[in-house]
Specification:
By secondary structure, the chain is of the alpha/beta class. It folds into 2 domains: 124 residues, NAD(P)-binding Rossmann-like Domain (Rossmann fold), CATH 3.40.50; 174 residues, 2-Layer Sandwich (Dihydrodipicolinate Reductase, domain 2), CATH 3.30.360.10. It is 36% helix and 21% strand. The chain has 12 helices and 13 strands. The strands form 2 sheets. A 7-stranded mixed beta sheet has the order 12-11-7-10-9-8-13. A 6-stranded parallel beta sheet has the order 3-2-1-4-5-6, sandwiched between helices. A hairpin with a 4-residue loop joins β9 and β10. α1 crosses α11.
């Protein structure tokens, strides 16, 4: 299904028997694989991974009552198999090449964040996509989470009034391997970029300045590879609103992801449910009942399913979608870059606007 030079057609129901390709079957890739085979409209899923044995192992574990599953020897073979859309869940360094490959094949691409390891490397990818008329979306799954979507609706309809403060939290229970942290680009680029994206998405404002601080009280190896295990960034939006973004690799209470919008008329908190990774110090209060989410996969299970369903609809020809564009993803990465720079320099850093390429 060549989408590079054709206008999409709105479809209420995805065309059945679509053939999707998935490159990269690590932690998040395996989550996508399970969701793809369970999504209506998908007839075949072909997997590819740098470790072919891992791709075969993931394929063998997928439910037998979903889409048919095949394994390709490499990305080139996957693309030759006639896939209608490509999902990229390989390592960050491979994202630019794989996005370009999908665009050149004339098929829609859904790529895990970020577009590239940094903004400088992302811009040529944006230019390539624009020049070819490519259909590319970046997987910022929080845009598909029911709580974040309700927060956006409540703010946009005026229920909260004007915002005087925003607080965003992203905390993992335990850190990933130090080998991953060493190549992740830093805590703000790896974790907080999700918060920077929803901050822009929900408020419709741009971050113009970031002041960041960090600490490393956990594994000293994290510091030795140039990162911190906990950090905070004070963000100033272009209308003067203040937002505080915090992140940590060590949160023993559970996987904690929240967003608090404090407005002149009301306050709304995303993530306040019985699996919230906090407990009350007030006598007699039994909320939340727990247990807390242990990983991101559980916290955002519904969002990941909705994200895949949205991409399937896009591949099938839906005219409109609410997925994250590559331009928006790079704008969020620019904020993360500024936060990392501020962390290193110890001073506030201005977030310069980007000149986005157009087709």
């Amino acid at each position: 299904m060549d989408r590079s030079n054709s206008s999409p057609h709105h479809l209420e129901v995805p065309v059945p028997d679509l053939h999707l390709g998935l490159v990269g079957v690590g932690r998040i890739g395996a989550v996508h694989a399970r969701n793809i085979v369970a999504t209506a409209g998908v007839g075949t899923l072909t997997l590819a991974d740098a470790d072919a044995s891992r791709a075969r192992a993931v394929a063998a574990e997928l439910p037998g009552d979903g889409a048919g599953v095949a394994v390709a020897d490499d990305v080139e073979a996957l693309l030759r198999s006639g896939v209608d859309g490509l999902v990229v869940a390989a390592g960050t360094a491979a994202h630019p090449e794989l996005i370009r490959a999908g665009v050149e094949a004339g098929i829609p691409v859904l790529c895990e964040k970020p577009v590239a390891p940094d903004v400088a490397l992302s811009l040529p990818v944006l230019e390539h996509v624009a020049a070819r008329g490519g259909v590319v979306r970046i997987a910022h799954q929080r845009r598909h989470d029911p709580g974040y979507r309700e927060a956006k609706r409540a703010f946009e309809t005026g229920e909260l009034g004007w915002l005087h403060a925003v607080r965003a939290v992203t905390c993992d229970v335990t850190p990933p391997a130090v080998e991953f942290i060493a190549t992740s680009g830093g805590l703000f680029r790896d974790c907080s970029v999700h918060d920077f994206d929803v901050l822009r998405w929900i408020t419709g404002r741009e971050v113009v300045q970031v002041y960041a601080r960090g600490s490393n009280n956990g594994d000293p190896e994290i510091g030795r590879v140039g990162d911190v295990d906990s950090a905070l960034a004070v963000c100033t939006l272009d209308d003067g609103t203040l937002a505080v973004v915090t992140a940590s690799r060590y949160n023993g209470a559970g996987h904690d992801v929240r967003l608090e919008l404090q407005g002149s008329r009301g306050t709304l908190l995303v993530g306040m449910d019985d699996a919230m990774a906090v407990r009350s110090a007030e006598p007699g209060v039994r909320f939340p009942a727990g247990p807390a989410h242990a990983t991101f996969a559980e916290r955002f299970a519904a969002a990941y399913r909705a994200e895949v369903a949205a991409f399937v609809a896009l591949v099938a020809g839906a005219e409109e979608d609410e997925m994250c564009s590559p331009e928006d993803a790079v704008a969020a990465s620019r904020v993360a870059d500024a936060a990392q720079e501020s962390l290193v320099k110890g001073v506030p850093v201005a977030v310069e606007p980007l000149e986005m390429p157009t087709a």
